[in-house]
Design brief:
Elements: E1 2-4, E2 7-13, E3 19-26, H1 39-48, H2 57-65, E4 75-79, E5 90-93, E6 106-107, E7 113-114, E8 123-124, E9 129-134, E10 142-143, E11 149-150, E12 166-168, E13 174-177, E14 181-186, E15 190-194, E16 196-199, E17 210-212, E18 215-218, E19 227-230, E20 234-236, E21 244-247, E22 251-253, E23 257-258, E24 264-267, E25 271-277, E26 280-283, E27 286-300, E28 303-306, E29 312-320, E30 323-329, E31 337-341, H3 345-382, H4 387-422, E32 428-435, E33 439-443, E34 446-449, E35 454-462, E36 465-470
Parallel strand pairs: 16-18, 17-19, 18-20, 19-21, 20-22, 21-24, 22-25, 23-25, 24-26, 25-27, 26-27, 27-28, 27-29, 28-30, 29-30, 29-31, 30-32, 31-33
Antiparallel strand pairs: 1-2, 2-3, 3-4, 5-9, 6-7, 8-14, 9-13, 10-11, 12-13, 14-15, 32-35, 33-34, 35-36
Helix pairs in contact: 3-4
């Protein structure tokens, strides 16, 4: 506050320094109506308060010509320039991504519908641009009313994730196909280009087991006992019985799985089918079923969705990292069914192992630095080292480089795992029509047995308890 004659001018700066207010305080009430304020006086007070940016000239003028307006409370006299956050980087895919929901059977010239001709494969040519990375922007710095710069929040960089048979440019901003083939997304959204192997009918003894570094399309059925393995995707236009299917990408089975508790279906990304009966299915991402899951073992890294026109889950054990969704779960006979959601034990175990390894690495680094320090002191005192000491110094220096590299790799992987765990959405079980008694529900260490009917209900954990809410 600055006193001038029969009044004082009080200046207040906001905590974020983006706004300053000025207030007139009258010290001599008898002469309060005769106040005269010069502009130079106001500017001197602002200068002493270090206000140099964003001064509102009209307010300064009003203060000098009509001081009474400023006695009721502070009036904004300066406004800073807020920083503008940077925009996040993004990845633009330049090829046609296959949308499974848009596929339609092919209509023939005579009006008939060919339900087998529905698999559309997004082929690309060698050298074709597949993805383009737009870098994040750093944002625009702001300035406080005191003239200090306000550092903006920079955007988060997007990262191209090259897989097999693709190349990136030196700036890692462009991704190209290295061969002719089909684009396939595998673990952690890596982009790959795989060649395609097609079977124009059933997998039988004339074909035998399939183990292919690429994508496999089977335009018939896969009977019990056969094995199909692919680095890319597997698409079966017929049904799968008790066979073994394993794909690095996704698996689509048009006519469903009838496994009779034999074989297994394992995908690094998604599994999509019409129904699963007595099957064993594992997906790194989602299991998407349009009709029913009956007496099966089903695991998904993120979600199990069975929410089609029927959308029934009865019997078996279902495990999902984030969510299980169905129209109906269980039946009036209270068939035992187990639903487990909300944990990623493999990630948590990996994080614990990484922390243990890092502790060992840092302890070895400390001992190595201690040894190098002793040898350094000896060299400083004697001016030279004996041959065995020199050899030890070289060995310790090499060991330190190896430990540093190992530590950086472990820290990078630790950050990835922590990001994945932080990105977990709250686990839930959604039933859009009815859940019947006989269900065992597990959320991590919490267990709830369903002993009554629950229509249109969401189950989730709040404050350490499995609670319910009504789905609209």
């Amino acid at each position: 506050m600055e006193g001038i004659g029969n009044y004082k001018l009080e200046v207040k700066i906001s905590q974020d320094k983006l706004e300053a207010g000025i207030m007139l305080v009258i010290t001599d009430q008898e002469q309060g109506t005769n106040i005269q304020i010069n502009e130079s006086e106001v500017r001197e007070i602002l200068r002493k308060s270090k206000i140099t940016h964003g001064i509102l000239e009209q307010v300064v003028h009003d203060l000098c010509t009509n001081p009474s307006k400023f006695t009721a409370g502070p009036v904004t006299v300066a406004v800073g320039s807020p920083s503008v956050a940077g925009t996040d980087g993004k990845i633009e895919y330049t090829f046609m991504k296959l949308n499974q929901d848009d596929k339609r059977p092919k209509e023939l010239e005579d009006g008939r519908v060919d339900f087998y001709s529905i698999t559309s494969i997004p082929n690309v040519a060698k050298g074709q641009l597949l993805a383009r990375r737009t870098p994040a922007t750093p944002g625009q710095a702001g300035k406080s009313v005191t003239g200090e710069p306000i550092v903006p929040l920079p955007g988060k960089e997007a990262v191209l994730k090259p897989g097999k048979n693709v190349v990136v440019n030196a700036e890692r901003s462009m991704l190209y196909a290295a061969i002719d083939g089909q684009v396939s997304f595998t673990d952690k959204d890596k982009v790959n280009v795989f060649p395609v192997f097609e079977v124009n009918g059933d997998v039988d003894f004339s074909i035998g087991n399939i183990d292919f570094v690429g994508t496999v399309v089977i335009r018939g059925n896969v009977p019990t006992g056969f094995r199909v393995k692919a680095s890319g995707d597997i698409r079966v236009l017929g049904s799968v019985e008790g066979a073994d299917l394993e794909a690095g990408g996704s698996i689509e089975i048009k006519s469903g799985i009838v496994a009779q508790d034999k074989g297994q279906v394992v995908a690094g990304n998604d599994v999509r089918t019409s129904f699963i009966q007595n099957g064993n299915v594992t997906a790194g991402n989602q299991v998407l079923v349009s009709q029913s899951i009956m007496f099966s073992q089903v695991r998904a890294g993120k979600q199990i969705i069975c929410n089609g026109p029927k959308g029934i889950i009865i019997g078996g054990t279902l495990q999902a990292g984030e969510k299980i969704v169905a129209r109906v779960i269980g039946n009036t006979s209270a068939t035992p069914t187990v639903l487990e959601v909300g944990v990623k034990p493999e990630l948590r175990l990996e994080l614990a192992a990484i922390n243990k390894e890092l502790q060992t690495v840092y302890e070895n680094l400390r001992k190595t630095d201690q040894g190098l320090g002793v040898l350094g002191q000896m060299l400083k005192v004697t001016g030279d080292l004996a041959p065995d000491k020199k050899a030890m110094q070289i060995k310790l220096a090499n060991t330190r480089l190896i430990l540093e590299k190992e530590g950086k790799q472990l820290e990078a992987r630790k950050k990835e795992v922590e990001t994945e765990l932080e990105g977990e959405s709250p686990a839930a079980v959604d039933v859009y029509y009815m859940m019947y008694p006989g269900i065992k529900m597990v959320f991590g260490k919490l267990v709830r047995f369903i002993k009554q009917e629950f229509p249109r209900t969401r189950f989730l954990v709040i404050n350490g308890e499995i609670t319910t809410s009504t789905l609209i």
